[in-house]
Specification:
Blueprint (H helix, E strand, L loop, with lengths): L3 H18 L6 E2 L5 H4 L5 E3 L1 H13 L3 H12 L8 E3 L9 H4 L2 H12 L5 E2 L27 H15 L1 H5 L1 E5 L8 E7 L5 E8 L5 E6 L4 E6 L4 E2 L4 E2 L3 E6 L4 E7 L24
Parallel strand pairs: 1-2, 2-3, 3-4
Antiparallel strand pairs: 5-6, 6-7, 7-13, 8-12, 9-10, 9-13, 11-12
Helix pairs in contact: 3-4
């Protein structure tokens, strides 16, 4: 339903802030309905549909609906202004490592983080693997030991989000060349370089083996789930076969640049087994 309050108030506040402080201000709506109408005025809106689809996919193992929805968010075919707040955990929901389990909490975070133009929300304590959700009425947190692997994972994932390739490249969902339907493949590429990355996320309950074309002179595959360079994949002259356990995420960095003639912005290698070296 049209709401004249937001239609009038938000532009007035933005104008006042700009004139008085020479700064900008953005409005975020924690809303679960009427997103189309609110999107005319608010800069960012909670995307609870993505959250629910991630949970349903993990429960059922059926990836198709989630893949289609992610493709829709990336392409934005109706051309509407919808900047989303995406998340796998917030103050009203149980901790992701508890209700999604650790591996799938990672894969769910990755598919959320791949949505360009969004705010990727990390709830307080999520980045260190907290398992207990404190009630909002209680102003203290239970003491929990940090999960160092979860700290490493979010460091890596946020480094990818901040990367030049992610911020300026084009992101598309591509199909596995062998027809595998268990994983979702995000291709991140830039037209002005000869590098690209493919983020492979197994959102199903079954083993996945995805295949992408090999047109690269340099290939590095990093296991974002475990924090190790991947060694159990198959690479030949025509194809790259990436093997994924349920909930597992790997990132393949591909380069067609001759190392002798490469520039720093063309490099796509996993320096010190860190994906940030690829970006």
């Amino acid at each position: 339903v049209e709401n004249p309050f937001w239609q009038k108030t938000i532009p007035e506040i933005k104008k006042k802030v700009t004139l008085e402080d020479q700064k900008t201000i953005e409005f975020i709506a924690e809303a679960y309905w009427e997103e189309g109408e609110l999107g005319k005025y608010f800069d960012f809106i909670y995307n609870h549909d993505l959250y629910k689809k991630i949970k349903t996919t993990i429960d059922t193992g059926m990836v198709g609906d989630l893949r289609s929805y992610l493709d829709y968010l990336l392409k934005n075919p109706d051309g509407t202004k919808k900047h989303w707040v995406v998340y796998t955990e917030n103050h009203d929901e149980n901790r992701a490592v508890e209700f999604l389990k650790e591996n799938f909490s990672k894969s769910g975070a990755v598919v959320s983080a791949m949505i360009r133009g969004s705010i990727f929300m990390v709830n307080q304590g999520q980045e260190i693997g907290c398992r207990y959700r404190p009630p909002m009425q209680v102003s203290r947190f239970r003491q929990e030991e940090e999960n160092q692997d979860m700290v490493r994972f979010y460091d890596d994932l946020l480094a990818i989000r901040r990367s030049r390739l992610f911020q300026t490249g084009e992101i598309n969902i591509i199909n596995s060349e062998n027809g595998d339907q268990n994983s979702i493949l995000f291709e991140i590429s830039r037209l002005d370089t000869k590098t690209r990355s493919v983020v492979a996320v197994n959102m199903s309950q079954w083993f996945s083996s995805v295949q992408i074309a090999n047109n690269a002179s340099g290939i590095d595959i990093y296991n974002l789930t475990s924090g190790e360079k991947s060694t159990n994949d198959e690479i030949n002259r025509q194809n790259i076969l990436i093997n994924l356990q349920p909930g597992e995420v790997k990132i393949a960095c591909l380069s067609t640049v001759d190392p002798e003639n490469s520039r720093p912005e063309d490099e796509c290698v996993l320096s010190d087994i860190k994906p940030r070296g690829c970006f």
